[in-house]
Amino acid sequence: MPTGVHLRDARQQLFDAAERVLLRDGPNELTSRAVTEEAGCAKGVLHRHFDDFDAFLTELVLDRAAQLETQARTLREAVGTGTVADNLSGALTTLFGPVPVAIIPLITFRDELRARLRQARPGGGLAILTQITAAVCAYLADERGIGRIAADADIDSLTLSLVGGGHLLFADRDPDPPATATVDKLVTTALAGVLPGPHRRS
């Protein structure tokens, strides 16, 4: 990589290289040397743009968390269309894609990274999970607001069930993500009792 490369280009190339290492080798193998070797540049390039490796990881996580906002907007735009269950099944599959799922254990096992994420934004210690939780919660609240979810539904608890269950399903990609039917079952089970009309349990 040329030493005069624009900062934005250098950052993005390093982030993309880190993502490839993370997906291929896992969080334990994600080191500054692995990132710069994957990016095909000198190790000094990373340290020229970031104070240290944890600063780099913090920016990586925040960058990938921001990318989830596009999926979150798509989910919000689905309010009132299709079925609530189908919308949520699709959203969980997208939000718990390979990159977010790979980043979550990276955050979990690096105390300094969590500390820096908390400094960077309120509630940011779990970054990716926080973003997914906010997206699902907002969608459920909107659907409740137009009457497609029961008015007395506990949105916070329902969100925790969906996001927690979704994380458990997608965390173990061995070798593939869960089948669509498995995700659908999680969602329909969580929604049982909160869908108005004939879908609601007594």
Structural key phrases:
about 200 residues, mainly alpha, Arc Repressor Mutant, subunit A, Tetracycline Repressor, domain 2, 2 domains, 10 helices, disordered N terminus
Please provide a written account of the structure.
- With 202 residues, the chain is an all-alpha fold.
- The protein folds into 2 domains: 1-49, Arc Repressor Mutant, subunit A; 67-199, Orthogonal Bundle (Tetracycline Repressor, domain 2), CATH 1.10.357.10.
- It is 69% helix and 0% strand.
- It has helices at 7-25, 32-39, 43-49, 53-77, 84-95, 98-109, 111-120, 128-145, 155-171, 180-191.
- Helix 1 packs across helix 2 (32-39), helix 8 crosses helix 9 (155-171) and helix 9 packs antiparallel against helix 10 (180-191).
- The longest helix is centred in the first third of the chain and has 25 residues, at 53-77.
Compressed to H and E, one letter per element, the order equals: HHHHHHHHHH
Number of domains: 2
What's the CATH C level of the largest domain?
A: Mainly Alpha
Per CATH, the superfamily of the largest domain is Tetracycline Repressor, domain 2
- Work out the helix count: 10
Q: Name the CATH architecture of the largest domain.
A: Orthogonal Bundle
Q: What's the topology here?
A:
Blueprint: H1 7-25, H2 32-39, H3 43-49, H4 53-77, H5 84-95, H6 98-109, H7 111-120, H8 128-145, H9 155-171, H10 180-191
Helix pairs in contact: 1-2, 4-5, 4-7, 4-8, 5-8, 5-10, 8-9, 9-10
Q: In brief, what are we looking at here?
A:
With 202 residues, the protein is mainly alpha-helical. The chain is built from 10 helices and no strands.
